[in-house]
Structures are given as structure tokens and as C-alpha cells.
Amino acid sequence: MLEKSENCYRITYAKINVMSHSNKKIGDMRVSGTITVKKPKGKLGILMPGLGAVATTFIAGVMAIKKGIARPFGSLTQMGTVRLGKRTDKRIPLIKDFVELPDLNNLVFGGWDIFEDNVYKSALNAGVLNKDILDKVKKDIDPIVPMKAVFDRNYVKKLQGDHVKKADTKYDYAQLLIEDIQKFKTENNCDRIAMIWCASTEVFMKPDPVHETIESFEKAMKENHPAIAPSMIYAYASIIAGVPFANGAPNLTVDIPAMIELAREKGVPIAGKDFKTGQTLMKTILAPGLKARLIGLNGWFSTNILGNRDGEVLDDPESFKTKEESKLGVLEYILQPEVYPDLYQNLYHKVRINYYPPRGDNKEGWDNIDIFGWLGYPMQIKIDFLCRDSILAAPIVLDLALFLDLAQRCGMKGIQEWLSFYFKSPICAPELYPEHDLFIQLMKLKNTLRFIKGEDLITHLGLEYYD
Ligand SMILES: NC(=O)c1ccc[n+]([C@@H]2O[C@H](COP(=O)([O-])OP(=O)(O)OC[C@H]3O[C@@H](n4cnc5c(N)ncnc54)[C@H](O)[C@@H]3O)[C@@H](O)[C@H]2O)c1
After folding, report:
1. Separation of 248 CA from ligand 1 center, angstroms?
2. Whose CA is nearest to atom 2 of ligand 1?
């Protein structure tokens, strides 16, 4: 049942029909309840800890797109469509129209950094976008200056900056961030805010007993416990302020029980982690294809050279370990060696990242893939991806901010697994394994959008066309 009013629409489900293309009911989901979707009124503020290469490429990019001097390639929210009903119905609206996402003109940007550079200067330093395009949006991005950061060098060894806050405890730091969020919201006249972590990768950390409950986490913050990283302080502040949070880096941040519980309690959507770009994007495109055709794998060796600040941070073995863990999990989950031992049990998977300054943000990633087919005959695939990391990451930041805002307007809270599409290490419920296959992730995302709007979910059975 669909009820519409000026500010929202409300869908009441008894159960959801799963339909095939010719509108035959082929199943149902036992979900019941009501989804009230608030319309996107006013401005959405997008706050990012870390105004480096990714964040500035995103902000300057949106400004350029608004001016009509560039196009939002790579963004599902801006260019993607969703098919509704039968294949013959020809109902294929743009996603942004279908679920009523905020217009780019209604976005406001801000963030924190340990360096004082404004977005124009930081974007010039990052060297992703050329000066030509940056000069065309200079007037819009010059005024965006970072707020003072919550930073501790013990968690990012290769960086040192003095644009940082001073407080006695980690709990106090969180309160300062909450004040920043509220001040930003008021000063920019925002209706809602979303926060996306675009700051450096922190050192590898294992879950600690203090991460178990909200109480133990808050106590640990007050005692300056080393298991509380700066990224966790931002995430905590975000959730307490009622602001959806996504983690674009591989560090342990919202993927701990205390944060998941807090997000559910406060009704805040969370997602993560580690933007899926570059080599891992390629892996999650290729590996499902090889597996689909039961092609075996003996080895997958991946190496990268990159010379941006991210590369410099990852030159520290402890930060690299965080990234390595995130990158390695992908193949294991997609290939399911326990289900296909003959094909994938002996896979040797190695990932290397080398800091090489001359390349800047223009990373080069090589993959050597040793595969085998019929009768065990070996073959090889070589990939040389001349990639631009931040060009691939920027549309992800935009999509995550708009989709997290949508989730919040729908009252969806806690882990948003339907946003796995964007992450190298998708967060999911503890009893599940993460879904890494890009195509399953996309189906999950689009079915979630259909679900939100009360449209039938789509399977790809299609037998009814041939009845
Ligand atoms: N570019 C990609 O394709 C990609 C993909 C996956 C993940 N990531 C992750 O996204 C993050 C951003 O990447 P980038 O290329 O923009 O890196 P970057 O080094 O250019 O920018 C990161 C910024 O974060 C700032 N920073 C560090 N700690 C901070 C803190 N505690 N508070 C506020 N600011 C802080 C740094 O000063 C820097 O300006 C990194 O963690 C990276 O690993 C990037």
C-alpha cells in the first residue's frame, strides 16, 4: 500500500512479492512493516575527515559538473538507471529520479585535515585534476577550508601536521567534533549531513575487548585507551550527532560491535570499508567471470606503484598491513575454495604496493594471473592498469553520501550491506560472509532501491517469456 504526502511517502508491506519479468509472482519475502521515505528537502552537507586527493577531486568535480564543464562518469547516482517491471515494459528511470536523490546544487562540502590548505590548494598539491579545470572552479572551492583535525601520529606514522585540535581525552575530542558538525550544519543552513572518511589509512589494529559495547568504548575514550583510533572518534561523533558515516579507508573504524550497536540505537546508517577502486575493482570484475566458467587459478600476483600521499602513508609497513588485509580477502570470498577445492584451494595470492613518487596519483597496477582450463592446461592473463585512483574514488564518495542520506530518510539504520558495491571489505552482519562479487552487489543495491519504492524485486529467471 502506498500513501503519499507532501514531505514523504509511506509504503506498508505485508510481504513483498518477487516477480519475474512478465509479472508472474515467483516467490515472496517475509518482510513486513512500513517504510516512510522523507523527501530530500533543503541542503545536504557532506563532511569528510581528510581533504586530500580523493576528497578534493570529489568536491572540485561536483563543482565542475554543476557548471556543465564536465560529466559525472562513474557515478551510479548521477548516470545509472534501474529497470522496473518486465523487460518489455521499458520502464528504466534514472536512479536519481526514481528514488528522489538531492540535486547537486543542494550539496555543501566541508571537512577536517591536519594541514591548513584549502580545497583549491590541496587539489593542486594532489595533482589529480589539472590546473585548468581547478581554476574554473577556484571561486567555489577556495572558501572551503579544513577544520582542525583529531590526529595522533601513532596511528599514521608517515604524516605530521599541526592543524590539529587539543583536548585531554579522546572523549573530549569527540565532543569537539560534534560541535564542529553542529556549527557546520547551522552556518551552512543544512537540513541533513553525511560523513565519509577520506583521511589516511591508519595502522593495522585488531578488535579489542573495549570495542565490544558502547559502555566499554566510551569508558576507553575517557581513559585515552590506545585501542581507540582517531577514525573511531570521528565515527563515534558522527553517529552521536545522528549523521550517517561511511569509511573509505581500510582501518578498523565502524566495523566494531560498539559502533554497530550505537548506530542501531541512534537510528544512523553506517557503511564501509575501503573504497573499491583500481586493482581490486578489476579483481571483483574478473574473478566472478573466471569462477562462473569454472576456470581454475594457481596464482594471482598483484603489484602497484603509486606516488601520492596515500602511497607515502602506505609505505609504512603498519598502514600497508591494514591495506593488504583489505585487498587479500576479496578473492578468498569470491572463489570459495572450500566449495571448489580442485579449482582454488592452491591459489597463491600476493599483493604488493610500492611508493614511487614520480607517478603521483596515476598509479600503475600489474596483475599476473595463472589460470588453468580443460584437462588442467595452463594459461596466463596479464593486466597493466594505468589507473587514476582518485578519479575512480570521487564518484564513490558522491554515491555513498547520497545513498546514505537516502537510507536515513527511509529510517534504515546500522550496517547498510546494500552499499557493499562500493567497498573492498564490505561490512556485513557477523553471521554472514561479505559479498564481494560486483554483479551480485549491484543486483542487491538495485533491488534495495526497488524495495524502498515498493516496486517488485526482479529475478532473472525469464522462463515466462517462452511459455
Ligand atoms: N584513491 C583511491 O582509489 C582509494 C581507494 C580506496 C581507499 N582509499 C583511501 O582513501 C583515503 C584517502 O585517500 P587519498 O588518496 O585522498 O589520500 P591523501 O593522503 O591524499 O588524503 C588523505 C588526507 O587525510 C589527512 N588526514 C590524515 N589523518 C587525518 C585525520 N586524523 N583527520 C583529518 N585528516 C587527516 C591527510 O593530511 C591527507 O590530506 C586513504 O585512506 C586511502 O587509502 C583511496
Report:
1. 8
2. 389
Q: Which of 47, 51, 54 to mutate to test the pocket of ligand 1 (most atoms within 8 A of CB)?
A: 54
Q: Is the dihedral of CA 429, 434, 440, 441 positive or negative?
A: positive
Out of 310, 324, 351, give the residue to mutate to test ligand 1, the one with the largest number of ligand atoms within 8 Å of its CB. Answer: 310
Of 285, 292, 256, 314, the residue nearest 392 (C-alpha): 285
Tell me what the pLDDT averaged over the chain comes to: 92
SS (H, E, C) the chain: CEEECCCEEEEEECCEEEECCCCCEEEEECCCEEEEEECCCCEEEEEEECCCHHHHHHHHHHHHHHCCCCCCCCCHHHHCECCECCCCCCECCEHHHHCCCCCHHHEEEEEEECCCCCHHHHHHHHCCCCHHHHHHCHHHHCCCCCEEECCCCCCCCCCCCCCECCCCCHHHHHHHHHHHHHHHHHHCCEEEEEEEECCCCCCCCCCCHHHCCHHHHHHHHHCCCCCCCHHHHHHHHHHHCCCCEEECCCCCCCCCHHHHHHHHHHCCEEEECCECCHHHHHHHHHHHHHHHCCCEEEEEEEEEEECCHHHHHHCCHHHHHHHHHHHHHHHHHHHCCCCCHHHHCCCEEEEEEEECHHHCCCCEEEEEEEEECHHHCEEEEEEEEECCHHHHHHHHHHHHHHHHHHHHHCCCCEECHHHHHHECCCCCCCCCCCCCCHHHHHHHHHHHHHHHCCCCEECCCCHHHHC
User: Could you tell me the pLDDT band of residue 21, with boundaries at 50, 70 and 90?
Assistant: very low
CA of 158 to the centre of ligand 1 (A): 12
Could you tell me the domains of the chain? 43-275+391-452 (3.40.50.720), 279-386 (3.30.360.10)
Does 19 score more than 60 pLDDT? no
- What is the 15 CA–ligand 1 centroid distance (Å)? 43
Q: For ligand 1, what atom is nearest to the CA of residue 230?
A: 31
pTM of the model: 0.93
- The response to whether residue 390 sits with its C-beta less than 6 Å from ligand 1 reads yes
Please report how the helices 53-66 and 119-126 are oriented relative to each other, as an axis angle in degrees rounded to 10.
Answer: 110
308 lines ligand 1 (CB under 6 A): yes
pLDDT exceeds cutoff 80 at 388: yes
pLDDT at 308: 81
Residue nearest to atom 6 of ligand 1 (CA): 275
